[in-house]
């Protein structure tokens, strides 16, 4: 009887325990998978995959602090404005820039979207307004949006973009525009680009301006030609559009890594959108850009962290502003710059520009200007 009771009791305990386990079971949930940010090396350093997508994103930019000065009795070419009320003193400037660059591969090539946010704080007190400085889409070689004119930068062709070796570049016709363009990079360094650019409903309204360039870039340097047609110029002075052209050459000195010589020649048949401009003068002088201009520039890399740039530009036969009427006035400009990078992503840059021009009989009488000197010291942190 004792053994029987023991067996029956043991069975009862097991049944009760089984029932309790079935009723009170604790289920521990599986942890959610964590998707860490992955590095994307398909487009160079700084890109990462947006979690859950195959789109690569890069966030970059810079902050600079700049101290500038100049002779204020004429236009200050470094800062690009005229003000006779300024006395002697320093002009301060802070600029902040943030770039968002998203890219992914498609059967039609790389699909890209680029956004640049920028704010510039001048000498006044107060915050600088943030604006969308650039925004464009690229699919393979096709590009559409708002960015630099292909006359200044087609995003291909290496040294064929911009002007001299300095940040300011002297006078090369920098401007930003709405555009639709196509860029081609072939074998052996061959490159080409063409763009239809907004003329802000000038001229016939529906006809855009046209820019094209072609060239070759290899280890020894590059050579290129560029041309542009300003369709809306015919509404200004009654001529049939405006034409501009540029020839350029850069030679890289093999025995001096980082050192190169650049020569650019410009022509324009009037003072229109694709004229590269010229040194400005007081309101009594009504000249614009030149018919011909030649620019020479040298970048000498003293060592991996220190470089010096020198350049000069001559302007032959300035036009009356906004017309194709010659004045017979010439001008010239010269520059010197230093760039020091003591540590990675930190740059110290200084540039000084001197401009001068011949005498001109303007609407306010004779004008025989003194030369204008302007320059700055800038500290930049890139990221």
TrEMBL record:
Keyword Ribosomal protein: no
Record keywords: Cell outer membrane, Ion transport, Membrane, Porin, Signal, Transmembrane, Transmembrane beta strand, Transport
Keyword Ion transport annotated: yes
GO cellular component labels: cell outer membrane; pore complex
Subcellular location as annotated: Cell outer membrane
Membrane topology term: Multi-pass membrane protein
Signal peptide location: 1-22
An annotated Gene Ontology molecular function: porin activity
GO biological process, one term: monoatomic ion transport
Matches recorded under InterPro entries: Porin_alphabac
Domain notes: Consists of 16-stranded beta-barrel sheets, with large surface-exposed loops, that form a transmembrane pore at the center of each barrel. The pore is partially ocluded by a peptide loop that folds into the pore lumen.
Functional description taken from the UniProt entry: Forms passive diffusion pores that allow small molecular weight hydrophilic materials across the outer membrane.
Family note: Belongs to the alphaproteobacteria porin family.
Protein name according to UniProt: Porin
């Amino acid at each position: 009887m004792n053994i029987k009771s023991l067996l029956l009791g043991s069975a009862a305990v097991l049944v009760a325990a089984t029932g309790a386990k079935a009723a009170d079971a604790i289920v521990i949930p599986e942890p959610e998978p964590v998707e860490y940010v992955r590095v994307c090396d398909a487009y160079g350093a700084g890109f990462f995959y947006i979690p859950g997508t195959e789109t690569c994103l890069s966030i970059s930019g810079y902050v600079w602090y700049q101290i500038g000065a100049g002779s204020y009795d004429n236009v200050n070419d470094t800062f690009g404005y005229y003000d006779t009320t300024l006395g002697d003193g320093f002009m301060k400037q802070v600029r902040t820039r943030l770039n968002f660059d998203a890219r992914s591969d498609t059967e039609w090539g790389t699909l890209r979207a680029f956004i640049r946010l920028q704010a510039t704080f001048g000498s006044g007190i107060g915050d600088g307004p943030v604006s969308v400085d650039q925004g464009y889409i690229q699919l393979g070689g096709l590009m559409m949006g708002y960015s630099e004119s292909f006359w200044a930068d087609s995003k291909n062709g290496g040294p064929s973009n911009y002007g001299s070796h300095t940040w300011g570049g002297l006078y090369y016709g920098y401007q930003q525009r709405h555009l639709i363009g196509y860029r081609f990079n072939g074998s052996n360094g061959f490159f080409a680009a063409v763009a239809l650019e907004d003329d802000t409903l000038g001229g016939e309204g529906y006809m855009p301006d046209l820019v094209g360039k072609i060239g070759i870039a290899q280890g020894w340097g590059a050579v290129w030609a560029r041309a542009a047609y300003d369709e809306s110029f015919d509404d200004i002075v009654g001529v049939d559009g405006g034409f501009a052209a540029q020839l350029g050459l850069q030679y890289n000195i093999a025995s001096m890594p980082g050192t190169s010589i650049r020569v650019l020649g410009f022509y324009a048949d009037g003072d229109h959108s694709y004229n590269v401009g010229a040194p400005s003068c007081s309101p009594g002088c009504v000249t614009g850009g030149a018919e011909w201009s030649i620019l020479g520039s040298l970048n000498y890399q003293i060592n991996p962290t220190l470089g010096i740039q020198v350049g000069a530009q001559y302007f032959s036969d300035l036009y009356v502003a906004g017309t194709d009427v010659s004045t017979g006035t010439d001008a010239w400009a010269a520059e010197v710059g230093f760039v020091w990078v003591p540590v990675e992503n930190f740059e110290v840059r200084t540039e000084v520009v001197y401009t001068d021009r011949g005498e001109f009989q303007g609407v306010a009488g004779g004008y025989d200007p003194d030369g204008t000197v302007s320059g700055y010291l800038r500290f930049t942190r890139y990221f």
